[in-house]
Amino acid sequence: MDQRRAEHGRNTGPVSLYGEFTLTANRKVRCAVSLTEKDLIVQRLSSSPVGRNKVVLSLKDCIGCRAYRGDDTADPAAYLTIFFYPLKRHWMSSGVSRQRAEQCFRLTGLQDPRANLEEAEKWARAVRERSARQQYLRDGVMMSALSRPSRMMLLVNPQSGKGQALTLYNNHIQHMLNEAGVTHTLVITGELEDNSTA
User: Could you tell me which of 96, 98, 106, 121 has the fewest CB atoms within 10 Å of its CB?
Assistant: First the structure.
């Protein structure tokens, strides 16, 4: 293990995977990415002080990830996207809520597109496995004990939540379930009209 890798995992546990990737949004930005048993650590590789460029994301907040190839067949890169929903404080109040955080990396270590995709898939499997070990249900059952892929049926009453329930599903819940890889069926409920006459 080289010195950079040893320093990268300090205070977060032993590093099980390490790689240097570019960000999908900005290919000029290179990052050192480390996966520990509990965290994903992303460190921008630059001359700035270390503390300002380091992000530690808890795998307890990870809901899913995926590895894929881009649309450009001439590009040998593979991509890794990891979805997090950490608790964050509202800047104007004392409340907290889960806010979406997406980490997207471009893997181009090799000229062979299949090898790059295999590396991205290796990372995706490792993130999913470690994330599942961090997830617990309230009754003490580990999430990893639940069968995968999961399926769910959602009942949405469009009149509930000030009439915003369906909008909430369309704008937030549907995306979260897709990111987590949960197949689901939406059932929209409605009030039964009483057509009987007295």
Answer: 96
Token pair for residue 22? 């570019």
First to last CA, the chain: 82
Q: What's the confidence (pLDDT) of residue 79?
A: 95
By DSSP bridging, strand 87-89 and strand 39-44 are unpaired
- Surface-to-core class of residue 41, CB atoms within 10 Å of its CB (0-12 exposed, 13-18 middle, 19+ buried): buried
For position 142, what pLDDT does the model report? 58
Beta bridge partners of 58: 39
Q: Which residues contact 171 (CB under 8 A, 6 or more apart)?
A: none
pTM above 0.85, yes or no: no
Helix (H) or strand (E) holding 65: strand 62-69
Residue 60's identity, in one-letter code, is K
pLDDT < 50 positions in the chain: 1-10, 138, 192-198
Alpha helix segments (H runs only) across 19-152: 113-134
Residue 149's pLDDT is what?
63
- What tokens were used for 28? 């000029």
Task: Assign residue 13 a region (left: φ > 0; alpha: ψ between -120 and 50; beta: otherwise).
Answer: left
The position carrying tokens 């104007």 is 92
